[in-house]
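Can't paste images in this forum, so I'm doing it all in text. The chain is below; anyone willing to post the predicted structure tokens underneath?
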Amino acid sequence: MVFDIKGKIALVTGGAAGIGLAYTKELLRNGAKAVTIADVDAAKGEDSAKKLNTEFGGNKVIFIRTDVTKADQLEAAFKTTINTWKGLDIVINNAGIMNDANWELQIAINCNHVVRGSLLAIQYMGKNNGGKGGVVVNIASILGLQELAGCPIYVGTKHFVVGLDRSFGTPFFYNLTGIQFLTMCPGVTDTPLISEAGRFALQGMGKIAQELVDGLGAMPAQPPENVAKGMITLITEGENGSVWVAEGGEPIYEVTIPQRQTLRKK
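Text version of the structure:
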């Protein structure tokens, strides 16, 4: 199923910097009508919106200060987007942290926010609620597809996203809502989340911080722009429920999750 970004309206959580900002730029480069940046960092968000409006002309970007762990603030971002642009077609639930030392906050952002953002997308975009459907992309990680000793709770949150999207991305939900659910799994990317990761490992676990740094360091790195270009491919070409990986600066690729019966240990 081909989805055309031209003329569409998007909402990106965690869009003030890093990969989220790169997503916003690529959406605009590919003809998006408007993008809302929802982020907790007001200074970066306002600055990014100002620079993007200068670069792309007109009032194509607004910033809404949003703590995605607060239900009312996240819903307000959806409402303001729709009131401002008179529609919403693409939601990228991108906000995320790597912080096993503060695992409750990590789960609130990486899991609860993604659930709430998905449900709000259905509420405001779903055909079952009078909308016209659209696309939701939830951000997992390559660590949603493998283990890593240095950050077990983070790994669990990203496995959660993969399972959530594969379930929302079934024919039942598409027939009900008209929304495609897609999963992006970025590899190690040059953002503060990765470069500062060692500071946020579990406490009292020996040399786990070094284990985390070494584990991430062994994976091929890439700039945020590579993930953002992959996002365009994912949105325009991805099949509902599909899971994609962008790593090492290479073109994005789709992965197949095997059925459990094929995983039986011999």
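The beta strands are 9-13, 34-39, 61-65, 90-93, 134-139, 179-186, 243-246, 253-255. The two ends are 38 Å apart (CA to CA).
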